[in-house]
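Q: Here's a chain of 124 amino acids. Please give me its 3D structure as tokens.
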Amino acid sequence: MTILPDKPPGSLQEKDLVALLLQDAISILQNDFILCGLDVSWIDQNIQDVFELKSLMRPVVERTGGPGSEVFYRLLYRVDIPEEKISDALISSADKDISSVISEMIIIRALQKSYYRMKYREGT
């Protein structure tokens, strides 16, 4: 039985927790991308590093067309990231690569989903 911290990951920097949840999060992402009609051939179940996953995901997020695109908003809805959170991120990250910021947000959300699955599966 794995002892989970009291709260889900809020960043990719939480190395031990992210490593524990990564493979399940990848499965969640695969499902979300497939349900949005997006190609998942870039997702490799052997990815062991969350930052490698982020770099692989970034071009896919770019290809959705970004804010204003139906595919982009379908992905956000499926992943369960509110539009206002994306709007806030776009404003606060104006000097950063938007696809990278959004990719990180999507990964964090998948890690959180994985955390809750594990937590409630174990009944802790």
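Q: Can you summarize the key feature?
A: Residues 98-122 form the longest helix (25 residues).
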